[in-house]
Amino acid sequence: DAAIRTTHADLASLALVQPGNTLKVIGRRIINGELETFTNEFEMGEGVLGQAIQQNDILIISDNSTAPYYQTQYPGEYHSSLAVPLQKDQQAIGALNLESKTYDYFREEQVSFIRNLAGHAVISIENANLLKERGEQVNMLEQLRNMGIALSSEEKIEEVEIKILKTALQIVHGENGVLFRYNAEGDAFSVVYGLNMRRNMFVQAQIYIPVHLIRMALESSESVWLTHEQLLEQTSNAVISAPLYENLALVPIQRGQDISYVMAITFDKEQTHPEQTRYTLNLLATQAAGHLENTYLHERIRTERNRIRTILDTTKDGVILLDRSGILLDTNPAAERMLSLQLSRFIGRDFIELLEEYTHIYEKDDRAQLSRILRLQPHRATNREYTIEYGGTTTYIQEIGTPVRNDKVITGRLLVLRDITEEKALLEYRTKIQRMLFHDLRNPLSSIISSMHLLIDEIPSHIADDTARFEFTEMLRIAEESATRLYNLVDSLLDIGKLQRNQLEVHFDTIHLIDTITNATLMIDTSIRQANITIESSIEDGLMVYADPELLQRIFINLLHNAVKFTPEDGKIQIDTIPYPE
To answer: pLDDT per residue over 488-520, tens digit each?
Structure first.
């Protein structure tokens, strides 16, 4: 418009060189006093515009009919022309053409003006291209950001792969895209997904890319850009026909140090800025690699978490996980069943406060102890048993508490609950059977001991032979001593059971210690005499002690029996007392 207004020409057109050495033309001409727009396309060298670009020089034509290269959409209307190349770095990137209906219309002052206008046009075109590139870069970064946001919340690897391919096609305006997964063990590629994009709509498609082309990206470990001529050369010996696309980009995507994918993008038109497109795809591949790695890690974590969840949900032991401050983080059905409380409803609650609401689980002192351990002794391991009375049933629970560590730092506490109700019932049943057996043994043993006393007192007097009487008496004493020892053992076992049940009764009395020791010595007298062991005592006759006579005597019998067992024949056992300071 400026050229027409200033020079009073009747037509002005501007041509720019396109990929493939074609010229894209836009022009304006005056029709009935109004400006009308027209467009056209030429091959390089055609028309006045093509010649000005090819010669990279100004053309002034006084009579268009005399120029063999003159071409026009409007034959016979325009008679003279002026064409000026648009130069960048001394290279013609286009041309500006003026035409007039008057022969020999253009003069030197018009040439000078158009030359200056062409220079300004180049600057404007460069600025427009730069602005377009910046806009495309901003758009690319925005789409990469949107992809990152979308992929950050995606957990399925298949969805991540598809979104990466779609984003690549959108950013670089490709026609077809294929994502190949590489299996290093089998050294083979498999198609993950293929897409065709038309008018920003995606359709799943099967796009063939020769494997030897894909391997170029694998072997070079960097993106590969192939022009149509290179594609023809690379597929000249292939069984299939040459590819129908103009450009092919192959971009490897790495996981760690290894290539896991190769992404192929095809273009139906020759790309004007292949290096920029390649850079964009490399940038996308770098970001995609991180998202793929994160998704793989999430899948592994999720699989491991599901496996642990399955174990927790099926184990018989109850599990309660608390953080360092006592907040309930996790639990399992077994714990809920044992405690008769749906703990999963209270995830995120303070466990101590929860126990205060449901007092059937922990006694007040137990709650205070757990709170103290969490606050002051988080490293402490605990093991305790308690009962829960709920719904008319009694449940016996063993609780084992251990600290949870992460890199040696305590981060929480794990409570493992075992239902030991059946174990308690079995133990009680066994104890009951034992008590019955011990009582059943005790009475016959008592009768045997009494009979032995009677035999020792009565039978020997009826034996005339001294030697026979002595041997028979010794035999009876051995039998009586063994029966007494067995009787004391049964009593001790019964006392152990009573002690475990806190039912052992102790009857204290003031007794002579020497009498208790003497009676104990008489109970194992036969064993002492057979080993020819001497027992000496320095205990005063009048020494009194405050104790249970029966239990104390049983203690001395056991001590003396062990002393006899580990003292050699003809040895000596010394019994002394040591005053205990008050």
So the answer is: 777 777 777 666 667 677 889 999 888 888 888
What is the predicted pLDDT for the residue at 239? 47
Cα 388 from Cα 366, distance rounded (Å): 13
Q: How far apart are CA 269 and CA 250, in angstroms?
A: 16
Classify burial at 30, counting beta carbons within 10 Å of its beta carbon; exposed 0-12, middle 13-18, buried 19 or more.
Answer: middle
Residue 197 host element (H or E): strand 188-198
Q: Which residues are CB-contacts of 124 (< 8 A; sequence separation ≥ 6)?
A: none
CA distance 280 to 141: 9
Amino acid letter for position 112:
S
392-447: per-residue pLDDT in tens? Answer: 788 888 889 999 988 888 889 999 999 888 888 887 777 777 777 766 777 787 77
First to last CA, the chain: 123
CA distance 382 to 291: 44
CA distance 391 to 538: 64
Ordered by where they begin, the domains of the chain are 2-131 (3.30.450.40), 154-300 (3.30.450.40), 317-419 (3.30.450.20), 427-575 (3.30.565)
- For the question of whether the overall pTM of this predicted structure is more than 0.85, the answer is no
CA 364, 369, 371, 372 torsion: positive or negative?
A: positive
Measure the CA–CA gap between 578 and 320, rounded to whole angstroms.
53
Between the CA atoms of 369, 370, 375 and 380, what dihedral angle is there, to the nearest 10 degrees?
Answer: 90
Q: Give every strand in the sheet of 201-204, ordered side by side.
A: 201-204, 188-198, 176-183, 258-267, 247-255, 224-226
How far apart, in whole angstroms, are the C-alpha atoms of residue 534 and residue 151?
Answer: 92
CA dist., res. 261 & res. 190, Å (int): 9
Bridge-based pairing state of the strands 509-512 and 544-547: antiparallel
Give the contacts of 105 (CB within 8 A, at least 6 positions apart). 9, 79, 80
**β-bridge pairing 59-61 and 80-88:** antiparallel
Which residues lie closer than 8 Å to 439 by C-beta, 6 or more apart?
A: 494
d(CA 419, CA 91): 89
Alpha carbon separation from 142 to 138, 148, 202 (Å, rounded): 6, 10, 20
**Which residues have C-beta within 8 Å of that of residue 134, sequence separation ≥ 6?**
none
Query: pLDDT tens digit string along 458-474?
Result: 776 777 777 887 777 77
38: tokens are 């027209």
Residue type, 125: I
**Residue count (the chain):** 582
- φ, ψ (nearest 5 deg) of residue 57: -150, 165
